[in-house]
TrEMBL record:
Listed PROSITE patterns: PROKAR_LIPOPROTEIN
Pfam families assigned to the protein according to its UniProt record, in alphabetical order: Lipoprotein_18
Gene3D superfamilies, per the entry: Outer membrane protein assembly factor BamC
Protein name: Outer membrane protein assembly factor BamC
Native source species: Ottowia thiooxydans
InterPro entries linked: BamC_C, NlpB/DapX
Length: 367
């Protein structure tokens, strides 16, 4: 049995032996265990490409504990289909997309947003102000672990052996808007550990669906970090709970090239495509809104890591990297119909098979 399975089953075996009971507190969020620096077994899409130092975060990953030990944190104060405003913080919603619109320049918001994630107990795997993207490392929501008799009695002695078999990461994207303020987007990606055989003695990590509820909750908490009270933030979130559904995307062919089409203007299409890229297996390395282009690196999240064999481990060889490719995702809109196409790194048509696969991924996320 794999160690990861053991740590999930041990508490329940002990629980049966002692006849205790458990309660799953699913409405709580607690990612502070991410600061322990535990290496999580996840697909290799987090690794940087060799030789591409432009996108490597300087130094080691940032942790909440190391940050708080060295610096005192000071508190800082389109046409959406649903919007609620308090002071200079606006909670926006259009269909399944939620974001904050803040009447402050992006450079004034970067540090408060960065501090927000560190104070929430996350590691920052990506911290790139030049492209307006920060991303947490994979972390576990410890609040999902049963608060049973054993854990309450033995406490921290066995706390480290508990695991939910789920991992989450969050990407934050800051974009300047036409009004001189900043739009802030938070997207969630999830993984779950699943059995690979009937004997249930081996597991792999598989992607699970993004959670809009988690995204909304962290947007609400960020509102509080930016000066909104807890009570006001909850009222704002509740008042914006209902919004018309966004138009469905469809896969089409233009000049024998696969594309995604959706009936909406450029502003909304640009925003929705950005969130779709964030929620799936893309790394946005740069973007040019004036030209309607996202520059991305894509790793198919269903690809498994190929572990080195016996002699490879004996010789100290690491896990070989999964092949990745760079593309341009172009967004154009004409007569209220947006078209999303896949280009190669030079701006020419991407290979047909790759374009078809990526177009389908984007369309599925936009539905």
């Amino acid at each position: 049995m794999k160690p990861s399975l053991l740590i999930r089953t041990l508490p329940f075996a002990l629980l049966i032996g002692l006849g205790g009971c458990s309660v799953l507190e699913s409405d709580r969020i607690d990612y502070k265990s991410s600061g322990r620096g535990v290496s999580l077994e996840v697909p290799p899409d987090l690794t940087q490409l060799p030789g591409q130092s432009r996108y490597v975060v300087p130094g080691s990953a940032v942790s909440a504990s190391s940050y708080q030990a060295t610096q005192a944190v000071a508190a800082t104060t389109g046409t959406p289909t649903a919007a609620t405003t308090l002071a200079d913080v606006h909670f926006e919603r259009a269909g399944n997309e939620r974001w904050l619109r803040v009447d402050r320049p992006a450079d004034k918001l970067w540090n408060p947003v960065r501090e927000f994630w560190l104070e929430s107990g996350f590691l920052l795997a990506v911290d790139q102000q030049n492209i307006g993207i920060m991303e947490t490392d994979w972390a576990e929501n410890r609040a999902k672990i049963p608060q049973d008799f054993i854990r309450g009695t033995i406490g921290k002695l066995l706390d480290s052996v508990y695991s939910t078999g789920e991992r989450d990461k969050f990407r934050t994207r800051l974009e300047r808007n036409a009004q001189g303020g900043t739009d802030i987007f938070i997207s969630h990606r999830g993984m779950e550990e699943t059995f690979t055989n009937a004997q249930r003695d081996n597991t792999i990590w598989q992607p699970r669906a993004s959670d809009p509820g988690l995204e909304a909750e962290f947007l609400r908490r960020l509102m509080v970090r930016l000066g909104v009270s807890q009570e006001q933030s909850k009222a704002i979130l509740a008042s914006a709970a209902q919004a018309p559904a966004a138009p469905n995307a469809r896969v089409a062919s233009v000049n024998n090239t696969p594309v995604v089409q959706v009936n909406e203007d450029f502003d909304r299409a640009w925003r929705r495509v950005g969130l779709a890229l964030d929620r799936t297996g893309f790394t946005v390395e740069d973007r040019d809104r004036n030209k309607g282009i996202y520059f991305v690196r894509y790793v198919d999240p269903t690809l498994e890591k190929k572990e080195p064999g016996f002699f490879g481990r004996l010789l100290g060889r690491g896990t070989p990297p999964v092949p990745t490719s760079r593309y341009q995702i172009a967004v154009k809109s004409e007569n209220q119909v947006a078209t999303v196409s896949v280009l190669d790194t030079n701006g020419g048509p991407a290979p047909q098979a790759a374009a078809q696969r990526i177009v389908q991924v984007i369309a599925d996320e936009l539905k």
